[in-house]
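User: ok so my PI wants both of these folded by tonight, can you help

Assistant: No problem, let's get them done. Here's the first:
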Amino acid sequence: MQLAGMTSRPGCVHVVGAGLAGLSAAVALADRGVRVVLSEAARQAGGRCRSYHDGQLGMVIDNGNHLVLSGNPAVGRYLRAIGAEDRIMGPATAAFPFFDVAARRTWTLRPNDGLLPWWILDAKRRVPATRPSDYLAIASLIRRHPGRRIDEVLPCRGVLWEKFLRPLLVSVLNTPPEDASADLAGAVMRETFAKGGRSIQPRVATPSLAAAFVDPALQHLARSGADVRLGRRLAALKLKDGKVAGLAFADGEEELGPHDRIILAVPPWTAQELLPGLVAPDAFCAIVNAHFKSVPPAGTPLITGLIGGTAEWVFAFDDRLSVTVSAADRLIDTDTQALADLLWQDVAAVHDLPRTTPPCRIVKEKRATFAATPAQEVRRPASATRWSNLFLAGDWTATGLPATIEGALRSGERAAALVSS
């Protein structure tokens, strides 16, 4: 029976949330010929991976700087599916330039391509002032350590820690690494450095996050006949007899047919509002990004790691220089201009530029990702729920990875697979 004012879409999958998890699920389902309705509360898709024209700078910028790696399998599958493989760029080999702020010294980490990590035997390829034996720490981290913090697995001191592992792990986990989950850190290391240099070539979206990950997906969905509805907020789920019986959107309600399914790909706090009793991450860490209207000097590397600075990475785009500060809760309340001046000192030092701060846009995300601690890891729910036609997607679900683009895309694939099973 159809209720007055409601519509029914038998055999339809409603994907709620058009961040990368929701887009991944929608693309996977549409490619299988499933009827998809993708609803997003915001007026643009992409979630935290969004781009927009900034009037202050007079250019398109991303809300944040996101790095993926050549060996990220879900990233590769997703970009191939939406025809956007050419929208990410990076060096042809695994090379990671670093700048030591205190020592005013530049050096480059160069892992070799093969599985056998002979690069640690070459002083010109490894971190300066480290010994090959120091890298046993990475081997320790690669093993599984459920429920343990990194500081319970590694000593968290020494040259390798300060000049490589700590800045790498704080970026990957967006959590002070001493407090973070060793299991999540190990999962990343098993999928990257343990597989050799071919898997860890850095890649950045070009010319923007939206151009690489969002716009081609929306175009692909349109060609596939999916119904994409932006600016459509889900206010409530109608739960009955162990199923979702209807969806109450701000613009009206929809009754679900017996074969309809729902993938909820929203932030964890939104999911908890919609689903009483849902256990999900409830502690979060901030990220601060700064975009400077300054054309990089000729020959500037795509990314440069910072040792001893406020930021961890400096990104060089065609028309701007950008920095990212992970686990940045300490900076959230800092005055915007003071923060821009502070971060520009890092950029100026790295690239030998004038110290006067150019026009800048600061982007603060207070709840950028869940805190990647053992306590929060156990709160991550599976994709399947106790409601038979409802599934979850998002980098905060139990992907086995930290909150990354790779994890978000995998969660969408997983939810789509469960819907289709």
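One down. Here's the second:
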Amino acid sequence: MSEIVNKSCGLDIHKSFFIATILSRSDEKQQFRLNRDDDGILTLKNIVLSEKCDVVACESTNDFWVPIHDLLTKHVRVIVGNARDMKAFTHRKTDKIDSEFIAKLALNGMIQPSRVFTKEHRDFRSLVRRRHKFVGKRTDIKNEAHSILSSEMIPLKGILSDIFGKSGKKILSGITSGKNLDDIIAGLPANVRKKSDQIREVLDREISQSAMIRLQSCLNLIQQFDDEIKKLETHIFNYVYSKHEHEMKILMSMPGIGELSAATLIAEISDFSDFPSGDKLASWLGIVPNVHQSADKYYSGRITKRGSKVARWILTQIAQAAARKNGSKLKEFFDRKKKSIGHSKAIIALARKMATIMWHLIKKDEMYEDEMGYAKGEILRRKIVESEPFSINECISIISGISAIVYKKEGDGT
């Protein structure tokens, strides 16, 4: 039996302020506009407690709700609902109407609560997502460097498998620093020097000064991102191996899943036991089709794409890798699906199947065993380096640097 709510508080939360509406069964309404700062949130807490609200509800928009949730959840039930589900009930749009409507939904028990992770896990997930963003930005800069080389007709990509590997960086650094061609080749490993004739043919041309400056800028940024990504990975693996080592081993026993993908899945999903079945997990991840039924007609459309974009992305990457593992049951499943629905849909079908398998393995505390006898090679666990906490002076230095950047942007009018 659901809990009876006699008084509710609905919040429409924005970056710098929020609107709070308190509704009761007797249609009494109070509405407040408060700043989203410490004083405003404390004022909200006092109002909610003095009015004896049974529930406080808000939308899961950005992370603006987090400090309000963390403070109020110790004193009153807080519901964080899916914004898309709640907006399906209304077409009107003002801040006051939104706040009042959320309060009405909460008063009548019509909000399905979203999963709210602990603060510790949210911090861990933010590190994983930060790394994901940095990798994307680094890829953009690498593509820009490829474009510069193509415009100067230097097809290094045809000679080296990765022009941003150790050998590639040596060549690019030599180009931007104006080194002699013989000196560049002499500094390369022996296996790369075998291609010296091809390298000479590609590099034996004049490069514009503008291209050299832009290329050097790209190399500097790539190195900075490499350093930052490495630091983030240290924090990520320190946490995940101390808190979820067993889940990491189970996930990495599956084809296509390595350390980073396993850590990303744990960061985005957290506790697998929150879901009653593997299908419910797949639905939460948004990799099940939209379903519509009218009379005797049944329609199945595109996947819902609900939930975490990062989780869907990593699942797709995992499925792509698993589909290439010869001699595995998962590849057999992919090949069979590909014949009937095509490559792209077969990858999504494989991702859904892998999500349900993950749920079963972790719930039953078992390692993955392939029915076709596929054996996964050992994954070398990276060495975990304990990170030192920031000192007070380092924290002040970081904050001062951020303030200086913000001040400069405001001064420039950006």
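The domain at 7-116 is CATH 3.30.420.10 (Nucleotidyltransferase; domain 5). The chain has a mean pLDDT of 87. Good luck tonight!
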